[in-house]
Amino acid sequence: MLAMNRTAFEHGLYGRLKQEAGHHWQAYIHHDFVRQLAAGTLPDGAFRCYLVQDYLFLIHFVRAYALLAYKLRTLPEIRAAVVSLEAIVKELPMHVAYCAQWGLREEEMAKEPEANETLTYTRYVLDIGQSGDVLDLLVALIPCVAGYAEIGQRLRDDPATVLASNPYAEWIQNYSDGDYLSGARAAIDQLERVGQARGAEQRFDALSAIFTTATRLESAFWQMGLTPHPTVIAV
After folding, report:
1. Which residues contact 21 (CB under 8 A, 6 or more apart)?
2. Which of 48, 97, 121, 187 is the most exposed place for a label (fewest CB within 10 A)?
3. Euclidean distance between CA atoms 123 and 6, whole angstroms
4. 235 or 143, higher pLDDT
């Protein structure tokens, strides 16, 4: 398997933003939802609730990357954003196919109401994209893209992670896959390039606030999974 260099998660602007987020970042990547995934002990209903809301979340994530492409001005930057956009669009059918294994059909998921946590997180990212510039938006997006890669790689490499007979092993494998890790590395590199071009150093405090808020909303999204929404599709 192609693995991302671990130092990629610690260096540059992304690494500094993570460090500044402190315990909020640790609460996100080591959330009890993630621990239970790794152990294979997460309740079935909690995971199915998460899958439905993640499907709804990804739709708005596509919108955010479309907004990112619109706000960029050079063709190389636009191409990089479109690559990320296409990766998410391609991920959706795979996500839908995976959900089907859990008895969740796309037409049913599309009718489900968004949980408050989904609404809050996705609209926050879109609001940052509308009110800020492209660097603000990239910072709001990166905790999800790179955070899942960091979680996936850590779980894959942790000898305590249970893979045999773990119903969530495929989820772990998906987010530790070489293609996903490469995409996350590209997103981190894009953040670094745009940050250097658009004054990240002078704006670091404001960018840190955006990053930490998005990180807190990621933790809330995990927590939402542990307290399933009452209208989640029943088997």
Report:
1. 208, 211, 212, 215
2. 97
3. 31
4. 143
